[in-house]
Amino acid sequence: MTSTDIKKKTSTDTRKKGTDINHSRHEQRPGTACVIGLGYVGLTLAVTLAAQGRRVIGVERDPAVREQLARKQPHVHEAGLELDRAVDSGLFTVTGTVPPGHEADTYIVCVGTPVDESGVPDLTQVEGAVRSVAERAVDGNLVILRSTVPVGTSRALLAELRAHRDVELAFCPERTVQGVAVRELRSLPQIVAASTAAAAERAAALFRTLTPDIVQVSALETAEIAKLACNAYRYASFAFANELARLCESVGVSSREVHEAAATGYARGAMPAAGPVGGSCLPKDTAILSRAFQDHGSPGSALLDGVTSAHRATPAQVADRVADRMSHLTVHGPPTVALLGVAFKGHPETDDERSSPAVQIMARLRERFGGRAVPVVRSHDPLVPHARQRALGYEPYTEVKEAVDGAHLVVIGTNHKSYAELSLHWLSERMASPGLVYDAWAVHAHDSAALTGDVEYLAFGEGRPTRSS
Fold it and tell me: I want to staple 141 with a disulfide (CB 3.0 to 4.6 A). Which of 137, 212, 247, 305 is the partner?
């Protein structure tokens, strides 16, 4: 039997079991779920579960976030997140403390697991959440760990929980893409691993209310590795695309054209588009997976370490190329700089500026421009609140036109559709002369002939700057 057959059999078996469970639940109200941590992961899950008729208690330690949610205003951007309906229905409530086990039969841990500069994960929030559950749970409760953790963490946490109560634990990793999490919660297969078969079926039954496809695996560690492997694989493929883009810049050719030539009529040649990659998940999960090799007695992974190094170097390489090009322009005094796109990505769109390559590029540029006085950075982003842009040291603008008027340098930092819809002709008409447009995602590489005035266009992965004709 192949791995594909196993997956299909697993999904079919769990769906069959679910028929009996769902039938019995017509006769009794689904149990209450307690979602601990209401960030991008926890809030979307809590609201989506409530939309399916389940009573959900959300636990959030930040009082400002709790107050905002009580006003039915989400503090994160997720398309299709119907927070107001969840609150108005009475099925979703928010508190600052973990409720006792007689008020919630299932606890779902969705807190963050950041890593430090060396890739060491900080499990303080996870361990704190589990400790709170251990203190409040009753025998028979189910704990579902959804936070990304190092390999072996779920089993260690299970031992800690069972030292206090007769509870079960499942690891059901979150795998949605930020910005479209609500849609993907209802469509993506859900991986389920648990301490017992009964616990696995309880967890599967909960997620089956959201998605029909359940992939049940035999060990907690299998699910932990599967989660990490998905993101590390994507991160590695992006690193390859970006390394190839750097080569194309050096040779003086277009990486877009290389991609098209490699993939046209040849599916094995398909690869991601080049562009600086950031966010909290892909770098973190790759670092955690890399450390797992050593944690479990295997030689370290030079491949994964190299992927991380390549991505970390990209923002500085981009900024240095921009600064070097700007040095050829006759600009008197500190240049006026406009950054279009502060979030770590533009598609799917998000308001999350954590680990944003655009922010890292701008920080390096400010260092390079230091000899001519650090310039004020005008910024624009469709979703990142102005207060958070100001906290980065920027001067935010509501309209793109206001940000780019008179700018010597415009950096298109994300691939947001609103920036792809701009015209280089429109941009260059409003910029100072001489000027430079740097396009980190090459969204306007096909339009570079539309430049006007003494303005150049330079894009990531494109070999030569383009000047207005």
Answer: 137
